[in-house]
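Justification of resources, computational component.

The compute hours requested in this renewal are based largely on the per-chain cost of generating structure records like the one below. Each record pairs the submitted sequence with a full structure-token output. That output is archived, and it is also reused by downstream analysis tasks.
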Amino acid sequence: MRVAGGFTLIEVLVAVLVLAVGLVGGTAMQLHAMRARQESALLSTAVQAAAAMAERIRANAGQRPVYLSLDYDAAIEPTPAPPRSLCQDTACAPAALAALDVYELKRMVRTSLPAGRARVCRDAHAWHAGRLRWPCSAAPGAPVVVKIGWRGKNPDGTPLADDDSGVVAGVAMAVAGVAP
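The structure output for this chain reads:
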């Protein structure tokens, strides 16, 4: 009668291989979850900024041309120039308030989004082939749209880019209640 003496070397190697495959799979899943969380946080920040700017445009609709001039890319203008008045000590004229609103959005995009971009324009067709695009139609009756995006990455780590500027537009919010 023969008594089993323990595990063979092959059984141990197979067990280690199965464990290694499980650990690699778990690590990949964790990395994917972290990347999805980061993208979700950026999207949430962009939505909040677009909504805030839409409200500011609605509240100061008489200064629409100041807002419509906003086309900011943090990679081109890393530090936005502050407006003449920061409206801290005195009452602010509507034009100065609009300039401050534009500056605040630029600062938020620069500090919160990786090489972000923001644009306010008239655009009747913000979406093209299922993708949000930066170019604007600028048609007189088109709705005012706030577009915000950032330079993201694909799951494999390569830069995520579009054909227009390299910055993928992530959020577009129409400003309701602003007359053409």
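The radius of gyration is 25 Å. Helices lie at 9-59, 64-68, 94-112.
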